[in-house]
Amino acid sequence: MAHTFLLEIGLEEMPAHVVTPAIKQLVKRTVDYLKEQRVDYAEIKPFSTPRRLAILISGLADKQEDISETVKGPAKKIAQDTDGNWTKAAIGFTRGQGLTPDDITFKEIKGTEYVFVDKFIAGEPVATVLAGLRDIIMAMTFPTMMKWSTHHFQYIRPIRWMVALLDDQVIPFTILDVTTGRSTRGHRFLGKEIDLATAADYEESLTSQFVIADADKRKALIKKQINKLAADNDWTVDIDAGLLEEVNNLVEWPTAFAGSFDDKYLTIPDEVLITSMRDHQRFFYARDASGKLLPVFISVRNGTDHDLQNVVAGNEKVLTARLEDAMFFYTEDQKKTITDYVERLKTVSFHDKISTMAEKMDRVKAIVTVLAKHLNLNDAQTKAALRASEIYKFDLVTGMVGEFAELQGVMGEKYALLGGEDPAVAQAIREHYEPISADGALPESVPGAVLALADKFDSILTFFAAGMIPSGSNDPYALRRQATGIVRIAKDQNWALPVAELASDFIAAESTANVAPDLDQNSQIQAVVDFVKDRIRKILRSAKQRHDIIDAVTNGSSSDVLRIFTAADILASHADDANFKAVIESLTRVIRLAQKAPAELADATVDPKLFENDSEGALDQGVAEVATAADKGLNDLYAALADIQPTIAAYFEATMVMDKNDAVRNNRLTELSKLANLALGLGDLDQLIVK
Description:
Blueprint: E1 3-11, H1 16-36, E2 43-49, E3 52-60, E4 67-75, H2 76-79, H3 88-96, E5 104-109, E6 112-121, H4 126-130, H5 133-139, E7 159-166, E8 169-170, E9 174-175, E10 178-179, E11 183-185, E12 193-195, H6 202-207, H7 215-233, H8 241-248, E13 254-260, H9 270-281, E14 284-287, E15 293-302, H10 308-333, H11 338-344, E16 349-351, E17 355-356, H12 357-374, H13 379-391, H14 399-403, H15 410-418, H16 423-431, H17 446-465, H18 479-493, H19 499-512, H20 525-542, H21 547-554, H22 561-574, H23 580-594, H24 614-630, H25 634-643, H26 645-654, H27 662-679
Antiparallel strand pairs: 1-3, 1-7, 2-3, 4-6, 5-6, 7-8, 9-10, 11-12, 13-15, 14-15, 16-17
Helix pairs in contact: 9-10, 12-13, 12-17, 12-19, 13-16, 13-17, 15-16, 16-17, 17-18, 18-20, 19-20, 20-21, 20-22, 21-22, 23-27, 24-25, 24-26, 24-27
GO molecular function: ATP binding; glycine-tRNA ligase activity
EC number: 6.1.1.14
Enzyme class: ligase
């Protein structure tokens, strides 16, 4: 007989951002637990609101699956002594299986007799197994935890009630002072506590108490209500998915409503209005058919439409106060010049162990100068990037950003345009923060991309030099995100970005401009290279690249971001070639032998007079061809390395590299070192797995 089981954890209101991850965690932990306990089921349906996490399991088996298996133990000569008595090994083995030595039989395997026992474990009733969900509930983790009353136990919010119903039977267990039962609670203000006759009654019973427990149904209802308001008023509403998710996790019985504000506030930039509505008040905004922002908003109440006009008025009052502040700051900020704000940055700390914000901008300008030359920017792009680097943090000391921190860069662009700056400069100021998340939007303009790179490189170099290097999950200054930004921008713009060489040039440029911080940045260059390569690894893994190819390209000699990605693509594209195994094996043999070359041979040249067979001359000519191909690009390099494979094979067939004659041996190692260095341009090929 199939059963239905309900588990509900009733809580004080959870933060909206926790609800969805929490219910997903509960489902996963339950799935894993039932699998471990050998209990079959048909489906697990999740339910979640701000006050509850619940699952309804249907098609649940009567009991665990029985276990019937034969278990192998020690050899007979270990299980019995010379007199045929059972040894401690045999007794311990059977005890571990819940049996006795009387249950032992012997079977011969490849001429040796071993102990075997037949083991049978009857499955426990499902009611017994479900009681173990207590531990699943208590094991859940959350971003923030709290204690309550006199308990030491921590959870996202205090547990107020629990329901555990197997069909119509309560599965009893207790957490702290809360014991499972059949009573659940409706809407905090509109509903009441009710007893569930069976687990299957859950969703319908809560609906009668003004709780839509199914998050998907609740979300669909909110969208339907918003779309109706928009259609009735000829508005265009972009229902932001993130905001919809947050609002959905704030309510149990949603009712959407519209409000308005004075159109005088439309003189404020749209970004400020949207931030005030969406981020601060969790309102949806509307536009007209032409895309112009309208002085209206849509919000969602946790309740019915009773006395809705009072709710509308209250929300309008709160938003108006917010917009009044924004209007004040917007007006006051324009009374000062960009120069005034830049001057104030001399008293604003970037970090107390590093420098002021003004000094950071000086360093970034030096880095922009290096990047502009390295990337061959044209005069207009260089001029815009340099001008932006001189002022790009000025909006940090404006009143608007002080009140609306999330508008950093956005207000910089607005105020730069109002201050008469070139639009390319203003755009770069906004874009230098991008990407603001691991997969966020990237700068679209060249000056913006260059400024973003410079700002991120400076942050990573100086924080590393100051000893504030991310470890484990600890990354308070978001340096991993900034390194990911560097990698993604270089890839997006198709820019060669040799991190090691550029970092050295950045530091030298800062010194020349007399803006270098009082920190040893040079000692951290390799650490920064490794840090950036770590981000490349993560991006390649997310792109489902082969793990051995990732290891090969990131462990190679190059620190050029674009080159590493290109090498990964090339190796992946040739991995199924018929000669790939032969090519890689030949090159890895070259690389391994080259590692035996003495350090003093690093700058040595090959002497053809020391060649003792024709294969040496053929290899010398082949290496020259590979070197020429390497100058053309990685595709040509790989093709040349593949072409030289028969020559390498013939060389090893005819040549003993480690000759007794020092001069001959060193000449051969020099030749192989040159080829190895060229091959390492693709990566550490020894990491590749070839079959």
